[in-house]
Amino acid sequence: MVGIMNVLRIIKNYFLYCGLERNEYNAVKKDAYVSNFVVWRVLHIFMALIFLSLFLSSCFNHLLKVNQIFYLLAFVYSALATSFFFILKKDSIMAQLLIYLSISLLFIFGCLISANNNTLPATTFIALLLITPLFMIDKPFWMAIELTAASLIFLIWMYGVKSYEIWMTDLINVTIYTIVGIFLNIIANSLRIREFVLTRKINIQKDTDELTGLKNKGALTREINDFLANPATNKGIMFMLDVDRFKSINDTYGHDVGDSVIEQLGNLLGKIFTGSNEITGRFGGDEFIIFIKNDNNLDAVEKFAQEIVKGASESVVLPDEKQTTSVSIGIAIYNGHETNYSELFKKADVALYKAKASQDKRYCVWEV
Fold it and tell me: Mean pLDDT over residues 3-29, rounded?
């Protein structure tokens, strides 16, 4: 019984998540959507050229003339769909729906071609059953429904068009190649989706600070620069903080304790800043950067600064329990004026040194 349940679980994972666990699949789903978008944009351009060539050829070739109207309609649709691919967002659901619409219309095209050549077994439709699943990265469950529905429509349609003997040949072929197409889609999806998983792991390792697990300097600067470069954004908060008397901690307790302080502080910041609009990382040494997107509320600045200062004092421990860890924080408010990371960083850095000189509180907001 346990063996059967494991087999069913594996089958479910392959049909729903390409052989991955659900969370792992969801983490790379948008990458797959972008890949689909790029591939199918190119395919639509090729389809437009192919159908245009077939239409023009049908004007001079009597063998192709019987399908002339279908070639024209297919060209018009491919050209229109191509234009949409230059408008839609790469990772949008609408782009994926457009791809499935194109796949469905390709199968209808195969049905029309077969109906026009009703004395012969289907070839174009069979070819589409095998080729189309190789170019779509998504849950194989959806492609299985697409192929099954297309095959049922084809067989019902052809039953009233072809002789019984030819229809039976189509029935056998379509049944076999529908199953083959489903398995080809599962195999192609599982292989290609793992490339995205591997790429994501490499990127995470490349962008992650080994000691704290937060973003490293390269990832921080790149992501904040990307945000600042967007003309639609004009609000943000940068916190720059470091550990007070960190050199003394290293000299007194050793570098292992210094590393532990950095690690504990990184864990604290990782717990405080968990939102999708928050970029948190270690800039280097004992310096950390937090950038909050789309917010410049001074109440939020006070709240986060006080939470960091209090959290460091209470949760970042030293071997001498009588000693507490303190941090200083420099804060720069982004209101759409700075164009890159360095400009905002300099303001936060000035505010940090003012915070260190302050006797009242451990944080300071940069002011002109």
Answer: 84
